[in-house]
Amino acid sequence: MGLRAKGPADSHLAKIGKLAASIGMDGFAWKNKLVALKTHFGERGSSAFPRPIYVRPLVDIIKAGGGKPFLAETATLYTGSRSNAVDHLETAIRHGFGIEVTGAPLFICDGLTGRDHQMVPVNGIHMREVSIASGIYEADALVVLSHFKGHEVTGFGGALKNLGMGCSSRAAKLAMHTSIRPEVLDKKCVRCGRCFDWCSVRAISQKKPGLPVAIDPDLCRGCGECLIACRVGAIRINWDNDARQVTEKMVEHAMGVWSTKKDVSFFVNILTDIVPLCDCYGFSDAPVVPDIGFAASTDPVALDAACLDLVNAQAGLANSALGTALKADEPKFDHVYPKLDVRLQLSHASKIGFGNSEYERIILD
């Protein structure tokens, strides 16, 4: 659905409600079900995360059917404002996700420090079982509200990333990132020390001033945060191998979550503030294309495929990470991340028999 409105019946909230109804949420048997409504509260400093008021129409539909929704999130791998339940909940409240706005309580589904999980078998290429946050696993139904945007490792972030990375435990996030091994390019490094403070596990160090900066592979968690911290491009990873494995493992974790909720899950993507980076950073860059609207499906793979095509169909914004006004139908995230296979999430899902990247797009008024 687009964003144009001629009256209250066309408000963004009304549109989200209509969209949810179109995929069967209003007629679903919600009564007495504990419903995990997975969204993203945003890292402190970020401003592109889903607006809290966008959650309310979904909560209202679930409650009208007698369901018991709760806003679901999990701990981050990196140290920030969401690495434990206390900080995470404080960040959520600071960003407006309190029950007085959304109508639902908040719950960090993998516990105080990200260790509460359940193992689920999957028939993946990399994974044979995945670790899912207990609160997600034990919920009777799942609604996933995602902000569609670019991502520096997986190409884009949408329903699949919110499902695979966002619904997993900290151990699972570590398992997804273990293939990333960043290295410092000494000739580019200016010895500014910015990456020292950015690294949550202090894996980056310099023995003496003037000596090369090094990353300890035994301490490194593979979160990739240092890539953004470095302002001169002196830190790199092997994109052909490392990023590919992270993406494929993430999709296999998404399949694991979906396998436990296949017939009781709904997905809504928000296509506004379509920035080039994940909402896990403490800042938000300028959007790469104009705002588009909202999309929904019961198939997260089809939904992300449609959203990626919608982004590419827009004319690019020159005053963004694109650096130039790309024409409509030119790939946008491929331009920002030329070393990544941006469609890998979709192709790998197809390879392992998860969802369907072929879709029929129905435009609602």
Features:
single chain, 365 residues, alpha/beta, Rossmann fold, Alpha-Beta Plaits, 2 domains, 6-stranded mixed β-sheet, two-stranded antiparallel ribbon, 16% strand, globular
Structure description:
- With 365 residues, the chain is of the alpha/beta class.
- It has two domains: 8-178 and 241-351, LarA, N-terminal domain (Rossmann fold, 3-Layer(aba) Sandwich); 181-236, Alpha-Beta Plaits.
- It contains 13 helices and 14 strands.
- α1 (12-22) crosses α2, α7 packs antiparallel against α10 (239-261) and α10 packs across α13.
- The mean pLDDT is 93.
Going across the biggest sheet, name each strand in turn: 3-2-1-6-13-14
Q: What number of domains?
A: 2
Q: Which CATH architecture of the largest domain?
A: 3-Layer(aba) Sandwich
Which geometry do the CA atoms define? globular
At the first level of CATH, what is the class of the largest domain? Alpha Beta
Summarize the main sheet.
6 strands, mixed
Query: Whole-Å distance between the termini?
Result: 7 Å
Which fold name corresponds to the CATH topology of the largest domain? Rossmann fold
**What is the mean predicted local confidence, pLDDT?**
93
Tell me the number of strands: 14
What letter string, H or E per element, gives the SSE order? HEHEHHEEEHEEEHHEHEEHEHEEHHH
Beta content comes to 15-25%
What Rg do the Cα atoms give? 20 Å
Determine the fraction of residues in helical runs and give it as a percent range. 25-40%
CATH superfamily membership of the largest domain:
LarA, N-terminal domain
Give the helix tally: 13
Name the poorly predicted regions.
none
Q: Look at the helices and sheets and give the structural class.
A: alpha/beta
